[in-house]
Each structure stands twice: as C-alpha cells, then as structure tokens.
Amino acid sequence: MLSVIPNPPRITLPIHGSDDLFPVRRVYCVGRNYRAHAREMGADERDPPFFFLKPADTLQVVPEGGTADHPYPPRTENYHFEVELVAALGQGGRDIPVATAAAHVYGYAVGLDMTRRDLQDEAKRQARPWDMGKAADLSAPIGPLRPAGTIGHPRTGAITLAVDGEERQRGDLSEMIWSVPEQVALLSTYFELHPGDLIFTGTPSGVGPVRRGQTMTARIEGVGAIGLRVV
C-alpha cells in the first residue's frame, strides 16, 4: 500500500560526538519556570507549572557552535526570544515518580522558544489558545543533544542569550521553580510520555524582541551554544 502524498520527513536531532540520531515524537514546553521571568510576565512565582505544545516540525536544528539563518515569521511585529534547556526523553511512562524521573532523560540541548508575543498577548486577552503565538514555523531552534551519560543531569550552570553580542538574558539552571525531574513527573500525570519526547524547561528573565538582521547567541554552561541570524 502506497501513501497518497509524500511521507513527511521524520524529525531527528543530532547527538554530540556521534553519527547517531535522536528521533523526536512530541515537543512539550513549560511556562514561567524561572522566578524572575514569572514576575516579569506578571505571574505569581508560586503558581504550579503549566504546559503547552509546539509541533515537532517547528524544530530548527542548528549545528553546534554554528550560526543558522532563522526566518522572521509573518503576522507579527514583536517576535521574542526565550533561551531554554531542553530535556530529551529516552524512556516513557505514566505517573513517573520524581525520585526516578531523571533516569528517563536521555540527554540535553540548548533551545529557544521563539514567540510571536503580540499574537500570544492577544490570545491571552481573548482567552484563546496560544498556538498562533507559539507555533510559528521553525520557532523552536535547537542544538545537538548531549547525552546525560556524558554530561550528567545539569542542575546548575549559566543560561544566557545575547543579541549582536549584547547580553539580554542571564540566569542559572538552579533558579528553576520546578526541576527537570519534577516537570517529567508532573507531565506524566497528564500524558503517557514516550521515548523521543522533548521538554523545553522554561526561560530566565530578560525576554525581548529581535529584529531582522540581528544575530542571537544562546549558551548553557556544560550543554553548548547555538547562533541564529534573523532573516
């Protein structure tokens, strides 16, 4: 039996130091998971975490240490950067205990949750879904995965983003309100998680707009760095 249209390509991520690939299933994102960012967005930092999804084909794979062209999306005049640690699951399950959740993570990467903020803000005002603000084409740039077996499970370390060499975001992974194991455990109470799922784990304060012609550099200590030229 043949497909009636060409089969869409399977989304995969490169693995640092290997020719192997990591196939992606779903992309989950956690909102307002750093205290300072929660405050700058007008939220109570004590609120429980919430999740939203991006389609897997919003991922834009960026070479380690390289700079890739990143298209400015249509229908926005306020396109924001949000640098994030991404956790990639190698094991799935339901109702995963926090104590064992880290063992479900295969590795980590540097990612950005790019956001059409004007569309997101309008959706908030009208109590509508965030999809148009959060799910633009290629709005989830990501670097190669580094296996946890190599780098461990980073709980501390600087997470930064610069625009044209000027630092705009700086935080530390230790400032997460909800740790990666806690995010995995909570998410598994809503969905059955599977190998290949990604979790964008939240961003520190300092999010802001980027314009065509500018270059973003995102870094996470011990995980890597990626560059994006907005075109």
TrEMBL record:
Domain Fumarylacetoacetase-like C-terminal: 27-231
The keyword Metal-binding is annotated on this UniProt entry: yes
Metal-binding keyword on record: yes
MF (Gene Ontology): hydrolase activity
One Pfam family, short name: FAA_hydrolase
Keyword set, alphabetical order: Hydrolase, Metal-binding
This protein's name: Fumarylacetoacetate hydrolase family protein
